[in-house]
Amino acid sequence: MAFTQGDVFLCRQMLLLSDFNADDFAKADIKLPQKLATASPVRQASYLAGRRAARQALQMAGVSGGFNIGTDAGGCPKFPPMVVGSISHVRSDERIEAVCLLTRKTSAKSLGVDLENIMSRDIAAAVFNQVCDASEKLLLKSNLNFTENVALSLIFSVKEALYKALWPEVRQVFDFTDVAVIAVHPIFQNHHYLYLPDQIQCGYCDITLKKTLAPGVTQGRCYRAEWILTDEQVLTSVLVS
């Protein structure tokens, strides 16, 4: 399934684990990295679904040449030089879902996408302090009419998407508590990335850096993250211009 807005392309691929076979890589003409040769079927299937989504996004963007989306030294997908892209995947029961967000370098310097299953209440309670600070907790309670685990799943995904978007500039690990969501804006209308029939809400968040991470990626800089929330999942994206 695929959707576009302007020069931004979002593609999704689903793969049933019961249907997956290692031969599927050869059939799809996608290279399995040597480091994944002995990985679990779930890890291999996730990689395959993500690369299939990336290939579809490249085709939609009009990029030809049969590019094989490998992995760079930092473990990130290696896209052709004329585009920037990001891949995310998640397991839902016996199904792997992968998304690829892609745009031309003339439209954005980098981007990040993240797809997450909604956390259980127990997991949300265990990781809350690793994801949010006191001001964000207050923001969630006062501005989002969500249960705590749904709200935290949204904030976690937003920060993961920002992490991916900033990685090309930062090239270092930073904590979720190094960035803060300072505003949440629900939008009650169809979203241009809508692809799930059980959508319940969408919108965007304002995020700020709490410390300088690299030259040009400085404390106080703000970013915007778009989100779609469904009964079971949250999809978020960040574009850096």
Structure description:
It is a single chain. By secondary structure, the chain is an alpha+beta fold. The chain has 5 helices and 11 strands; from the N terminus they run E-E-H-H-E-E-E-E-E-H-H-H-E-E-E-E. Strands 7-11-10-9-8 form a 5-stranded antiparallel sheet, with helices on one face. A hairpin with a 2-residue loop joins strand 5 (83-92) and strand 6 (95-104). The longest helix is centred in the middle third of the chain and has 23 residues, at 148-170. The protein is globular, with a radius of gyration of 18 Å. Mean pLDDT is 88; it is low at 190-197.
Strands of the widest sheet, in order across it, are 7-11-10-9-8
Helix and strand content put the structural class at alpha+beta
| Radius of gyration computed on alpha carbons | 18 Å
* Helicity level: 25-40%
Averaged pLDDT, please? 88
Give the total of beta strands.
Answer: 11
**SSE pattern:** EEHHEEEEEHHHEEEE
Gap between N and C termini: 26 Å
Global geometry = globular
Task: Please report which band the strand proportion falls in: under 5%, 5-15%, 15-25%, 25-35%, 35-45% or over 45%.
Answer: 25-35%
Main pleated sheet: 5 strands, antiparallel
Low-confidence stretches: 190-197
> How many DSSP H or I helices?
5
